[in-house]
Structures are given as structure tokens and as C-alpha cells.
Design goal:
- The protein has one domain: N-terminal domain of TfIIb (Single Sheet), CATH 2.20.25.
- About 20% of the residues lie in helices and about 20% in strands.
- The protein has two helices and four strands; from the N terminus they run αββββα.
- β3 and β4 form a beta hairpin.
- The longest helix is centred in the first third of the chain and has 6 residues.
- The structure holds zinc ion.
């Protein structure tokens, strides 16, 4: 995991304030609203508009954030 456990602990979905969980090494999932946030260069992009883009994308079909 590229994101430190300490950072992960304080990360929450900006839309619904639910703590996010890692999906692989490059995505963070909000289990409450289904938004998914990409991690680019070890930086989580915690923006509602980013999470919205992949809300309906199954986690197994999420692209590599480095290619976005
Ligand atoms: Zn959420």
C-alpha cells in the first residue's frame, strides 16, 4: 500500500464523511456511497467530482490512475 496507515486513518469520503478503504494500491473506496477516489503519485485525490466519475465502475474494472 502506497498510502501510510496513519494517512488512511484520517481520510474520509468528502461527500458523506465515511472513512474510505483501500482497493489495491491506487484506489480508495467509500463503502457507503460507492464513490472511488484515485491515488496518483501516492496522493489521494479526495474530490467529490473525482469520486463521482467512478461511482458506477466495479472495483475490478477501475483503471490505473497513472493512465488517467
Ligand atoms: Zn461516500
Amino acid at each position: 500500500m502506497a498510502i501510510s496507515p496513519e494517512l488512511l486513518e484520517v481520510l474520509a469520503c468528502p461527500a458523506c464523511k465515511t472513512p474510505v478503504e483501500p482497493v489495491g494500491e491506487s484506489w480508495l473506496l467509500c463503502g457507503a456511497c460507492g464513490r472511488k477516489y484515485p491515488v496518483k503519485d501516492d496522493i489521494p485525490i479526495m474530490l467529490i467530482e473525482e469520486g463521482d466519475k467512478y461511482r458506477d465502475t466495479p472495483v475490478e474494472e477501475l483503471p490505473d490512475p497513472g493512465s488517467l
